[in-house]
Specification:
The chain is globular. It is of the alpha+beta class. Helix content is about 30%, strand content about 20%. Helix 8 (about 215-225) packs across helix 10 (about 280-295). Strand 1 and strand 2 form a beta hairpin. It folds into 2 domains: about 45-200, no CATH class; about 205-300, Cytochrome c-like domain (Cytochrome Bc1 Complex, Chain D, domain 2, Orthogonal Bundle), CATH 1.10.760.
């Protein structure tokens, strides 16, 4: 047989073309591991997300560790404060940067977040989650995120290993505050900051339909809510105050005030920190809010 003649046959030409095309398609469909690429060097990998919009609340979330890794934090400088809440010492010196500068650069300029009735939510490594109104952060008392105690021994960020474990990566301090001023939070082990609308964050705890109760809610939020919850909104270190039973349904007003001011006089092993700096009128405002919330129980 004359193979030369057969190879020029139109049928064979078509068949060979189809065979070559099939081989090309088969090769493209093989698992990607057959054509694995070399690993991407660490310095070329995309940076971890450091700030984003929370889909559930519409708030802005800042991951402080990721921001530090990505070089997005303000430059650090010496921070000197007149009084320190945790160390009970005057004129402490740290290394850190202003909280207001961070929020202004990221939250307001990058995301154009609306601060109307906004609050700041702090999240710590130990589960402590206090909140503050945004207005306090931009008030006369400056807050700083610090990451080193300048009075620590050489080569250490904090005085000892216990402080190292508790206070890193960041500790929020304030200049110009007075002892017992519970409006200002001093969270340590701070890893995340969230800004959110008060109406969304406290939708089950805020007295929207009764303006007379707002003052009591504000005092409760500043002094109690970092540890206690109302309808599941607030801290989890202490007991829930409204669901399924409101505290005013089983404690008298006098006992609530006495316990808050001196917990160990009721329970010798109580770890609750005494609530100081509130007048009787302010305590009664809080209790009035609690009584109001007894008629508004809604746990989600």
């Amino acid at each position: 047989m004359n193979t030369t003649c057969l190879s020029g046959h139109p049928f064979l030409k078509t068949g060979l073309s189809l065979l070559l095309l099939s081989l090309l398609i088969w090769n493209c469909d093989q698992p990607t591991k057959a054509r694995a690429r070399p690993p991407v060097p660490e310095n070329e990998k995309p940076a971890a997300p450091s700030a984003w919009v929370d889909s559930a609340s519409g708030g802005i979330v800042l991951d402080l560790n990721a921001m530090a890794q990505n070089g997005e934090l303000p430059a650090s400088d010496t921070v000197q404060i007149s009084y320190d809440n945790h160390f009970s010492k005057n004129n402490k010196r740290y290394l850190g940067f202003p909280l207001a500068e961070l929020l202004d650069a990221v939250v307001f300029k990058r995301f154009a977040f609306d601060t109307t009735d906004a609050i700041v939510h702090f999240e710590c490594t130990d589960g402590y989650r206090p909140t503050m109104p945004v207005s306090l952060i931009f008030g006369q008392n400056a807050g700083y995120l610090v990451h080193r105690d300048l009075e620590a021994p050489p080569g250490r960020a904090w005085a000892d290993s216990l402080e190292e474990a508790r206070f890193k990566p960041f500790y929020l301090v304030w200049d110009g505050t007075q002892p017992g001023d519970h409006r200002f939070m001093w969270p340590y082990g701070l890893i995340r900051i969230k800004l959110v609308s008060l109406r969304k964050e406290f939708k089950n705890a805020y007295p929207f339909n009764n303006p007379e109760m707002v003052a009591g809610f504000s005092l409760f939020n500043q002094n109690c809510m970092k540890c206690h919850a109302i309808n599941g909104v607030g801290g989890v270190i202490g007991p829930e105050f409204n669901y399924p039973k409101n505290i005013t349904e089983y404690w008298t007003e006098a006992n609530i005030m006495a316990f808050a001011r001196n917990p160990q006089s009721f329970r010798i092993s109580s770890k609750m920190v005494p609530v100081q700096g509130l007048t009787d009128a302010e305590f009664k405002s809080i209790i009035g809010y609690l009584r109001f919330m007894a008629k508004h129980k809604a746990l989600e």
